[in-house]
Amino acid sequence: MNILLIVPPEKYYIESYVTKKLDKGREFRQKLGILYVAGYLKEKGGHNPEIIDSLADGLSDSDLRLIIQEKKPDIVGFSVLTFNLLDCLDVARMIREVSPDTKICFGGFHATIYPQETLNFPEVDFIVFGEGEITFNELVKLLDEESVEGGLGNMETKLAAIEGLGWKNSKFGLTTINPSRKAVANLDQIPMPAHDLIDLEKYTVVLANDAKVASIQTSRGCPSKCTFCDIRLTRYRYRSAINVLSEIQFLRSRGINEFFIIDDTFTINRKRVFELCNLLIDENLGIKFKISSRIDRVDLEMLNILKKAGCYRIHYGIESGSQRLLDYLEKGITLEQIRTTINNTKKAGIEVFAYMMIGIPTETKDDIKKSMDLVLELKPTHVNYSICTPFPKTVLYERSLKLASSSEDYWLQFATNPSSEFKIRVLNENFTNKELRNLQDCALRSFYSSPYIIFREIIKTRSLKQLVTKFKIGIRLLIPRVI
Question: Which CATH number fits domain 3-177: 3.20.20.70, 3.30.70.270, 3.40.50.2300, 3.30.450.40?
Answer without folding.
Answer: 3.40.50.2300
